[in-house]
Amino acid sequence: MTVAFKQQSADRLQESLALVQRLIERQRQLEDLVSRQEASEPPTDPQAPYYNLEALRLKLEQLHPADVAHILEALPLEDRLLVWDQVDGARDGAILLEVSDAVRESLIEVMEHGELVNAAEQLDADELAELAPDMPRQVVYEVMGGLGEEERAQLQSALSYDEDKVGALMDFDLVKIRADVSCEVVLRYLRRFDELPAHTDKIFVIDDLGLLKGVLSIRKLLVSDPDALVAEVMATELVSFSPDEDAADAALAFERYDLITAPVVDEAGKLIGRLTVDEMVDVIREESDSEVLNLAGLKEEEDLFAPVIDSVKNRWAWLAINLCTAFVASRVIGVFEHSISQLVALAALMPIVAGIGGNSGNQTITMIVRALAMGQMQLSQAWRLWRKELRVSMINGVLWGGVIGSVAWLLYGSFSLGLVMLGAMLLNLMLAATMGVLIPCLMQRSGRDPALGSSVLITACTDSGGFFIFLGLATLFLL
């Protein structure tokens, strides 16, 4: 996909969102006008309020479920529910799969039992497994009762795994063949399908016991001798996954090996499902979103238009921690209150030291968190990386400390103050580098997400440390 095409797609989506918003606004205006009309003055066109809704319904039918999901996420709750009411019920399940967890919850809350059952019945077993945790149990049980024995077993299998495991994401719709048949037989077999399962780039080769023996790519099949046996042309070196593996690790493997599909096998090597690239892209996106949220100290993804109380609950914990760390920083300043009163320039310069340290620390911590998440760094490498980051911070400290020290010298006419700025900047950047490596590594060692609140913690360290270093040096050498 070229950059130009992606931009065009984004522009079309924004145009669709703008059109939906205009239709909603006109609908609200008409409803308000009708409600204010006196009974003695009936509206000239009683159907007028429904024209906009019909236009909205037609527009939604033209959009892909993912685009409808984007529009729902971009609307306040009242407008979102109005749009949701105009969505064709046959598409409810597909759209619910696309929206974020927070928005999905708001939609499911207003759906009737029958609507939920109808939406769930539209989905395959693997899709239903993804949606089931957010559905009322009674709905899930009712839908399971209507499934065939094989589909019910597949759904129960998927639901038995945690949502962050491969088993919860595997697809059961795949093509299997035996190794002792010819390529011509395989081609005739494929022609019996109305259409192949989505993302079919390879066929899975199994034996009579269902054990995975290899894979035959569609490209290889098309150019092979029709009389050749599958065993002769199939690939036996392949990437496969266990249902108990972390989905994030599988997503990294998909990215590393440019996979479109991959088999999922049990402990005995029996083929039980497959992973597809669309699911792995979702995992990568969710992991990225989670990392960004955790760096900011947010507990979970938040609906942009969520009720105030929900947003408060999501944000309060790390704000409380931040309040405590800010109080510590204020007490550090309080300890040097006498020094600041004697040399007022310290009050103007100390935020610079803390701010640059915080920025440098966030750069280091972001790099370390990403390396841990991507599996590029092991905890045993922390010492080596710390030494590297320490050298980087020393060079930056001398460079930018020299710049700000020179500025302080020119502004306040004190060469000693400039040297103190240089020293404080150097030491605080070294502290930032140390904490930038130490914090995520300690979080990882303790079994927690290394990104969780890291930004808050590094800022607290560089603020308090920066104030202490700068004011301490100033007290020792200037007063």
Automatic annotation (TrEMBL):
Q: Which PANTHER family match?
A: MAGNESIUM TRANSPORTER MGTE
Q: Which UniProt keywords apply?
A: CBS domain, Cell membrane, Coiled coil, Magnesium, Membrane, Metal-binding, Transmembrane, Transmembrane helix, Transport
Q: Report the InterPro entries cross-referenced here.
A: CBS_dom, CBS_dom_sf, Mg_transptr_MgtE_intracell_dom, MgtE_N_sf, MgtE_transporter, SLC41_membr_dom, SLC41_membr_dom_sf
- Its name, as the record gives it, is Magnesium transporter MgtE
Q: Which family does it belong to?
A: Belongs to the SLC41A transporter family.
Instruction: Tell me any Pfam family this protein matches.
Output: MgtE
Instruction: Determine the domain of life of the protein's source.
Output: Bacteria
Matching entries from PROSITE patterns are given as: CBS
Q: Does the keyword Protease apply?
A: no
Q: Which residue windows are transmembrane per the record? A: 316-336, 343-361, 393-412, 418-443, 455-478
Indicate yes or no for the key word Membrane: yes
Could you tell me where this protein is found in the cell?
A: Cell membrane; Membrane
